[in-house]
Write a structure and sequence with these properties.
This protein is mainly β. The chain has one domain. The chain has one helix and ten strands; from the N terminus they run βαβββββββββ. It has a six-stranded antiparallel beta sheet, with no helix packed on it. The longest helix is centred in the first third of the chain and has 4 residues.
Length: about 150
């Protein structure tokens, strides 16, 4: 369904995912020599950051903001997103706490003639029971500056 807000230039997206405990435990993820596991980068599995045995709910709304446009930047879009993850979902051994992650981000994207874009994004992450350690809270502030050039 398009244009649910009856406001051209507004996009809204909701995504939900739930992975089972068997996700990412296939032998291909555990093969390799020593600590060099297949399909990993620096010890992290290449796949969704929620991993296996987890829930993830993501929402994003973005809106064209024409009053920020300039003769050079033909389009400017503002975005707001939130993400909540919880894992593991199933029973865990004693001493292993369920980790929760809440992320909130705001961003602006400037576009020139569909060939050049600039993105400025601020994201706040709040982990509860970080690395499944009860009571360990971690907070991160992330600033992203990105440019893309299509040729």
């Amino acid at each position: 369904m398009t244009d649910i807000f009856r406001d051209k230039g507004t996009d809204f997206r909701v995504e939900y995912a739930m992975t089972k405990p068997a996700w990412y435990v296939h032998g291909i993820y555990g093969t390799g020599v020593g600590n060099n596991l297949a399909y990993t980068y620096n010890g992290d599995i290449m796949g969704h950051n929620m991993g296996g045995n987890a829930d993830d709910l993501f929402c994003r709304i973005s809106k064209d903001v024409p009053f920020l446009s300039t003769p050079y930047f033909t389009s400017v879009k503002a975005g707001l997103e939130g993400d909540y993850q919880m894992h593991p979902l199933t029973d865990t051994p004693s001493g292993v706490a369920k980790q929760g992650l809440t992320e909130i981000a705001v961003d602006l994207t400037w576009t020139h003639a569909d060939s050049l874009t600039f993105l400025l994004k601020y994201e706040f992450e709040n982990y509860v029971n970080f690395d499944n350690v009860s009571g360990d809270t971690q907070r991160n502030h992330i600033v992203t500056l990105q440019s893309n050039f299509k040729f």
